[in-house]
Amino acid sequence: MAREQDHMLHRGIGMTSQRTRERLIQRLYEEGISNAKVLEVIRRTPRHLFVDEALAHRAYEDTALPIGNNQTISQPYMVARMSELLLEAGPLDKVMEIGTGSGYQTAILSQLVERVFSVERIKVLQDRAKERLIDLNLRNVVFRWGDGWEGWPALAPYNGIIVTAVATDVPQALLDQLAPGGRLVIPVGSGEVQQLMLIIREEHGFSRRVLGSVRFVPLLNGPLA
Ligand code: SAH
Fold this sequence. Notes:
Helix content: 25-40%
CATH topology of the domain at 63-213: Rossmann fold
Distance between the termini: 35 Å
Bound molecules: S-adenosyl-L-homocysteine
CATH class of the domain at 63-213: Alpha Beta
């Protein structure tokens, strides 16, 4: 590993880091995350590189943290749970993510599926996320600056779609862009009342599962420079 990269990977992280990281994995396991691949990928992905240096010491707490522009990096449990739901029926090759944010969920997904197509409306967040993924040598991701309500029709269909912001209702475009058997994991609702949903494209129509209450920032409209 290049010295600079080595330095970067360890920046802001004290002697206890390895232990803190192990504790997070243990906690996710105890809270019901059972997919060993998901746990392994979270174990080896340096979440502290996805937040400001000033917050790096809190990166392995199971909590959402601010990333600027009124947005947050998702809670590790939620990242794990949503990844696990996507992968529940077997491996996936094409996955679209709506809401790149810090790029943390993107980085996790990129190590679990063949290719990730990630859409973000805030340009500066996207640019930073891109850099982080390049630094970590995660190359199977392409980024689109645009409106997640519209998905990324040119490259559809997708075997999996994950939305990391809460939608007032399920965007029709995302349903349209699901491949047969494809899975959409999405928080739906508003304010305090939000439910995580798993929607699957069946032979005729869609099946829906409600998986419990969650807390996300809203899925907004339109791209933002
Ligand atoms: N998975 C990210 C979560 C970021 S928070 C992480 O762990 O860092 C949700 C993200 O969704 C924000 O970056 C926000 O800008 C983005 N977002 C909100 N509405 C959107 C839309 N309509 N299209 C694309 N991205 C959107």
